[in-house]
Amino acid sequence: MSKRIQFSHTGGPEVLEFVDAPPVAPGPGEARVKNAAIGLNFIDIYVRTGLYPTPSLPSGLGSEGAGVVDAVGAGVTHLREGDRVAYAQGPLGAYAQYHTLPADKLVSLPDAVSFETAAACMLKGLTTQYLLRQTYPLKGGETILWHAAAGGVGSIACQWARALGVRLIGTTSSPEKAALARRNGAWEVIDYSRENVVERVRELTDGAMCDVVYDSVGKDTWETSLDCLKPRSLMVSFGNASGAVDGVNLGILNRKGSQFVTRPSLNGYADTRERLEGMASELFAMLESGQVKVDIAQRYPLAEAGEAQHALAERRTTGSTILLP
Ligand SMILES: NC(=O)c1ccc[n+]([C@@H]2O[C@H](COP(=O)([O-])OP(=O)(O)OC[C@H]3O[C@@H](n4cnc5c(N)ncnc54)[C@H](OP(=O)(O)O)[C@@H]3O)[C@@H](O)[C@H]2O)c1
């Protein structure tokens, strides 16, 4: 019998159950993937805890994975059984041995990209693509601040920013994580658990401050992030690792220097097949050229997804984490 992770009520990692789940036959426009590797993301924790509500319960979990197409539904023309594919969108349920989803969410995997690498970077790498190349189209020469620079998205962003000729100032919470971010191409790193981030950014930039701040930490860093911007610059708030930013009085953007703020998501950027394919081909080109290398620092059996999420929430992980079905 095949297995999946599901949860019947929201809560801590203990709500995750490893249960029997027969593979679901694909309906029209759908395909079924036999997962070879599954990506772990902080977003999965928001879903498990209820910060991001699910359509119904019990629910599957996870939205990133890679494997082989093992069945296709009526009307699917761009995929066949046996194709190597990866995905980062679609219905929850990637934490499973088999996942059935709309075929237009699947992209073909180049031979040079392994299943494990794809599972470790589809969601995180496509996110980095839109943040660095679309939300603010960096040209090279800019200075940016990137929080949690040794994490899954952060590790890819450090390398991609270096390739673009952008000076990325990373923040991390330990010397080991700082060293990792530097190895990945961060120009400078600030330990935000000990140092005054605004003062350090001022020193590092000779008072000029940053063109863009990328903030996925949320509640704890929101105001600091605004203080690290040049006037009339862009604050990209794209996550809530420390809690959601809420109750914002827009007047703060005036006081902090006529700033711009955006709260983007991958689904808002990869919202058509054409856009998804364009973003994925750019990510795969970065992987194939060696400019971005995906660091799979943790591997867990699928059955231990709760333990893996616990480690991620407790800041014990670096780079990417994958689950093996
Ligand atoms: N909007 C989108 O499209 C999108 C897509 C993908 C991911 N994201 C966001 O990007 C962020 C990174 O995702 P990821 O999966 O790659 O995770 P990750 O960066 O590997 O892990 C989160 C990191 O956040 C830092 N952090 C700061 N305060 C924290 C706290 N109170 N609790 C836990 N961690 C804290 C930790 O690094 P330090 O120990 O160095 O502080 C931790 O390692 C998440 O916020 C996620 O929601 C957004």
Automatic annotation (TrEMBL):
Catalytic activity: 2 a quinone + NADPH + H(+) = 2 a 1,4-benzosemiquinone + NADP(+)
Keywords from the named record: NADP, Oxidoreductase
Cited CDD domains: QOR2 (cd05286)
Chain ranges of the Enoyl reductase (ER) domain: 11-323
Uppermost EC category: oxidoreductase
Keyword Oxidoreductase belongs to the record: yes
GO annotation, cellular component aspect: cytosol
Name the UniProt record assigns to this protein: NADPH:quinone reductase
Source organism: Vreelandella subglaciescola
